[in-house]
Amino acid sequence: MTKPEKLKRIDQRIIAFMRNRRITALRVSLAIIFVWFGILKPLGLSPAEPLVLATTSWLPLLEPRAWLLVIGWWEVAIGVLFLVPSMTRLALGLLLSQLVGTFMPLFLLPEVTFQAGHLPYAPTTEGQYIIKNLLIIAAALAVGGSRARRTT
Fold this sequence. Notes:
Elements: H1 3-40, H2 49-56, H3 64-82, H4 88-108, H5 110-113, H6 125-131, H7 133-151
Helix pairs in contact: 1-3, 1-7, 2-3, 2-4, 3-4, 4-7
């Protein structure tokens, strides 16, 4: 076997390995992120706490600290549900509502999420933290799309 043939065979094995594990890797990644970041909120350890409190200050029904707890446990639930393939639709529904809230500071608190005088192209660390959720949306779409193919 020639060197190019060996390399092609190795490449094909690597591609097959990735193809067979990609959705599981996304599920586990989503679960880790949501459980980890979510549990920090009720424990009072989340660096996002001031941002969450400022964003929820106008919401009815609960005080901002209570909303912080709700959001934290909501995120934990999303993470756990992503680990159970049959619960993917529920996880996606909870994620959709969570992400609406996650993006709100970009609009409600631009002075916190963008550098002064550089709206909308130069986010602060907080803004970057929020914008990276676009990757979470893409991962969730991939997981949800793979589940839909299997059940139809």
